[in-house]
Amino acid sequence: MLDVSEKREELFDLLPETLLTWFDVLEKNGQLNQADQLRAWVKQHVTQLTALYDPVADKFYAQLMSAMKTAGVNLTDTSAVSQFTKNYLEQHPDEGQALFTKKQ
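Predicted structure:
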């Protein structure tokens, strides 16, 4: 969803504080009734929220998407995407291994 230049770890470090601020604003405007519960959830999941940025996965999926576009895969056809991904992983086992073992 983000442009390549926007995908930086620092951006994901801002997620918890941004969510907390957003909940404050929504609560003050009367648009959020469970703000306390949401704030508690964010505080409990800070590590998970800031770890959403994964450069290894990002690189893998960018390469996979590029290969799909080059091959002319219809991205709305889940069966075609699934089959292409399976074939891609079989043809590029090192990339799949790097993704799932976090080797860079």
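Summary: The two ends are 23 Å apart (CA to CA).
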